[in-house]
Amino acid sequence: MCPRPFKLIAVYFLVALMAEIAASTMAYYGMNNNLLGDIFYIVEGLFLISFFYLFYAEEEFLYPAIIIAIAYLLYGVYTTVVDPGPWLYNPVFRTAESLLVQALAAYALIRISKEEGIEPSKHPGFWIATGFFIYFSVNMTVFITATVLFADNIPLMKSTWFIHSCSNILVNLLFAYGLFCIPLKIR
Q: Which residue, among 57, 157, 141, 160, has the nearest Cα to 99 in the 3D structure?
């Protein structure tokens, strides 16, 4: 088992923590943190494309990964700078990121299911890919219901974000268990 994707994912979690602290601090002081969010989503997507490329360990995925990363980066910069701009929430780009990560995680889970002689309960990639698949699926579903379907119904909208918070707890437990499953010799 290659240690590189799991080292990269540990760095990703640290970057996510720093972004969350910065965004929370900005929100506390009443500052617009949409630009920070857009920058984080661009970096997050590039991290996750790299993680899944390393995780798949398929040389033939190198060029598709580079093409996907370049397209993702260009689209992210365009939506951040031009439409809708740096001061507004960017729902289309966030949805595109969610769909991309869902596809990458689904492919990882399919690959793991085809490996012989593995125990999913002890495979760190299984838990991490499952966590990403669940997180980005719920993220997209909750966003659509909270901002499109229930935008005028504040109590119902808040309930959908409560569901998001509960799923985050579950997903963080999956990530923690996945990291715990990494064999000591590659940590």
A: 141
- Residue 100: band (very low, low, confident or very high) from pLDDT cuts 50, 70, 90: very high
Structure tokens at 52: 């899944």
Q: Give the whole-angstrom CA distance, residue 43 versus residue 45.
A: 6
Contact predicate 129/98, CB 8 Å = no
Task: List the one residue out of 99, 74, 108, 115 whose CA is nearest residue 6.
Answer: 108
Contact 140, 95 (CB under 8 A): yes
Burial state string for 10-39 with b = 16 or more CB within 10 A and e = fewer than 16: eebeeeeeebeeebeebeeeeeebbbbbbe
Distances from the Cα of 139 to the Cα of 101, 102, 166, 171, angstroms? 11, 11, 11, 11
pTM of the model as a whole: 0.87
